[in-house]
TrEMBL record:
<dbReference type="InterPro" id="IPR039513">
    <property type="entry name" value="PL-6"/>
</dbReference>
<feature type="compositionally biased region" description="Polar residues">
    <location>
        <begin position="328"/>
        <end position="347"/>
    </location>
</feature>
<feature type="signal peptide">
    <location>
        <begin position="1"/>
        <end position="18"/>
    </location>
</feature>
<keyword id="KW-0479">Metal-binding</keyword>
<protein>
    <recommendedName>
        <fullName>Pel9A-like right handed beta-helix region domain-containing protein</fullName>
    </recommendedName>
</protein>
<dbReference type="InterPro" id="IPR012334">
    <property type="entry name" value="Pectin_lyas_fold"/>
</dbReference>
<keyword id="KW-0732">Signal</keyword>
<dbReference type="Pfam" id="PF14592">
    <property type="entry name" value="Chondroitinas_B"/>
</dbReference>
<dbReference type="InterPro" id="IPR052052">
    <property type="entry name" value="Polysaccharide_Lyase_9"/>
</dbReference>
<comment type="similarity">
    <text>Belongs to the polysaccharide lyase 9 family.</text>
</comment>
<feature type="domain" description="Pel9A-like right handed beta-helix region">
    <location>
        <begin position="141"/>
        <end position="304"/>
    </location>
</feature>
<keyword id="KW-0106">Calcium</keyword>
<feature type="region of interest" description="Disordered">
    <location>
        <begin position="325"/>
        <end position="347"/>
    </location>
</feature>
<dbReference type="GO" id="GO:0046872">
    <property type="term" value="F:metal ion binding"/>
</dbReference>
<keyword id="KW-0964">Secreted</keyword>
<dbReference type="Pfam" id="PF22842">
    <property type="entry name" value="Pel9A-like_beta_helix"/>
</dbReference>
<dbReference type="GO" id="GO:0005576">
    <property type="term" value="C:extracellular region"/>
</dbReference>
C-alpha cells in the first residue's frame, strides 16, 4: 500500500519546480501530500523531496519511533526546506526513538543520533521546529551548506544541537537549546550547541540562547577550524539538575576547544557580543585549544570560576567585561593581547556596575524574527561602549 501511495505522490509532484509537501500529525501516509491531504510521517516527506521542495509541517506534536534521516541534498539555488507551516507550532518528540536514553556507559550508534540526523546532506533549510526528548536534537555529520533558524532543542538525551565532522558554511540562527542531558554519561557530554571532532570553514552561530544544559553551554571540542559566534547567551550550564552520581558535567558558558594531542588544530574562533552568566565553571575558555581567537565586546558575569581563561590560544581581547565571577575575572597567559577590557582598567566590576542584572530580561519569548527583546541587561552604568548588548542589530 505504502509503495503505491508514495509513487502516486511522486507522480503528482511537478518535476520542473520544487513542490510543496504537507505533513500533519493527523495525516496519512496513503495521502497525496497536498495541503488538503497531508502525509503523516516526516520521513515520508523527506523521502519524496527533491531540490526546491518545501516540506510544511502542520501544527501539533509528531512522535516518530525512529529518527528522521536526511541524507540527500538540495542545490545551491534550490534548497530543500523543512519548516513549520505559517507560524504554526510544531514539536517533534523523540521519546519513542532508540537511545532515549542509552544505558549508562553505552554508546549510541551514529545512525541513531539526532531527532534530525543529517548526514552527507547539503543545501537544506530548517525553520521553526521544536525538537524534544530525542537522542540528540539536531545531529549533523559531515554536512555542509545547511541553514537552521528559530530551532528549539530541549530536554534531549544528549546535546541539543551538534555539528560533527566535516562541516562548512552551516548557519544556525536564533537557536534555543536548554535542559539537554546525557544519562548515559552522567553529564559528561550533553551541551547546548556543539561543534565537534572535525573541521571546515564558514560556520556561524548567531543569536543563540544555551541554558541549563548538563555539560557546557557551547563546546567546540576537537574542531580544528574557525567558528564565528555572535549575539549568543549561555547560562546556568553544568548544574546537576538530574541527580547524576558521580556528576561529570563541566559547566563552561563557552568552551572554545579542547581535545587530545593531534586533535587540536589552530582554530581562529571569532566571538562577538556574547554573554556568559551563572555557569558552574568558566565564562569563556580556550580549554587548551590553539589558534588566534578574537573576542570583542563579550561579558562574563557571575560564573563560578573565571570570566575569561586563555592560556594555549592567542586571543585578542578587546572591550570585554568580566564582573563578579567566583574566582577571578581572568586567567590569561602572557601571550594574550588584552586592551580596553574591564580588567585593563583600575576599577573592579561588580553587579552594581550594570544598569540591570535581572536575568529574566533575556529569558522571554522571541519575536517572530527570532530576536529577543532588547534590554538594559548587563549594560554598564558608566555608558562605556564595552561588553555585550542585547540591542542586536
Ligand atoms: C563554503 O562557501 C564558500 C563561499 O560560498 C565556497 O567557496 C566553499 O566552497 C563552500 N565550502 C563548502 C565545503 O561547500
Amino acid at each position: 500500500m505504502k509503495l503505491v501511495s508514495v509513487w502516486t505522490v511522486a507522480a503528482l509532484l511537478p518535476s520542473c519546480l520544487g513542490a510543496e509537501i504537507y505533513v500533519s500529525p493527523s495525516g496519512s501516509d496513503d495521502a497525496t501530500g497536498a495541503i488538503a491531504s497531508p502525509l503523516k510521517s516526516i520521513q515520508a516527506a523527506v523521502d519524496l523531496a527533491t531540490a526546491g521542495s518545501t516540506i510544511y509541517l502542520r501544527e501539533g506534536t509528531y512522535s516518530p519511533t525512529t529518527n528522521i534521516q536526511i541524507t540527500k541534498s538540495g542545490s545551491a539555488g534550490s534548497p530543500i526546506v523543512l519548516q513549520a507551516y505559517e507560524g504554526e507550532k510544531v514539536v517533534i518528540d523523540g521519546e519513542e526513538m532508540p537511545g532515549t536514553p542509552a544505558e549508562l556507559d553505552a554508546s549510541l550508534d551514529n545512525d541513531d543520533r539526532g531527532i534530525l540526523h543529517i548526514q552527507d546532506a547539503e543545501y537544506w533549510e530548517f525553520y521553526d521546529l521544536e525538537l524534544i526528548n530525542g537522542p540528540y536534537g539536531v545531529y549533523s555529520r559531515d554536512a555542509s551548506n545547511n541553514h537552521y533558524e528559530r530551532i528549539i532543542t530541549r530536554d534531549n538525551y544528549e546535546s541539543g544541537f551538534q555539528l560533527q565532522g566535516a562541516a562548512s558554511n552551516n548557519s544556525v540562527f536564533y537557536l534555543d537549546s536548554y535542559g539537554n542531558r546525557d544519562p548515559r554519561k552522567n553529564g559528561e557530554s550533553a551541551d547546548g550547541f556543539a561543534c565537534k571532532e572535525g573541521e571546515g570553514e564558514g560556520n556561524i552561530l548567531r543569536g543563540a540562547r544555551l541554558w541549563n544544559n548538563v555539560d557546557d553551554g557551547l563546546d567546540l571540542w576537537e574542531f580544528k577550524s574557525a567558528v564565528t559566534i555572535e549575539d549568543t547567551i549561555s547560562w546556568g550550564n553544568g548544574v546537576n539538575r538530574w541527580d547524576f552520581s558521580p556528576f561529570e558535567g563541566d559547566g563552561n558558558g563557552f568552551k572554545l576547544g579542547g581535545g587530545g594531542d593531534g586533535e587540536i588544530g589552530p582554530a581562529n574562533h571569532i566571538i562577538t557580543n556574547c554573554i556568559a552568566f551563572e555557569n558552574s565553571k568558566d565564562g569563556f575558555t580556550d580549554n587548551s585549544q590553539t589558534g588566534d581567537f578574537t573576542l570583542t565586546r563579550n561579558t562574563a558575569s557571575n560564573n563560578a570560576a573565571v570570566g575569561f581563561k586563555f592560556a594555549s590560544a592567542v586571543a585578542t581581547l578587546n572591550d570585554n567585561i568580566a564582573a563578579a565571577n567566583g574566582e577571578k575575572p581572568t586567567s590569561l597567559s602572557a601571550d594574550q593581547i588584552s586592551e580596553g577590557n574591564s580588567w585593563d582598567g583600575s576599577e573592579s566590576w561588580t553587579d552594581s556596575s550594570f544598569i540591570s542584572v535581572d536575568t529574566t530580561l533575556v529569558q522571554g519569548s522571541r519575536a517572530a524574527s527570532g530576536l529577543i527583546e532588547a534590554s538594559d541587561f548587563l549594560l554598564p552604568k558608566s555608558g562605556e561602549a564595552i561588553g555585550a548588548t542585547t540591542h542586536w542589530s
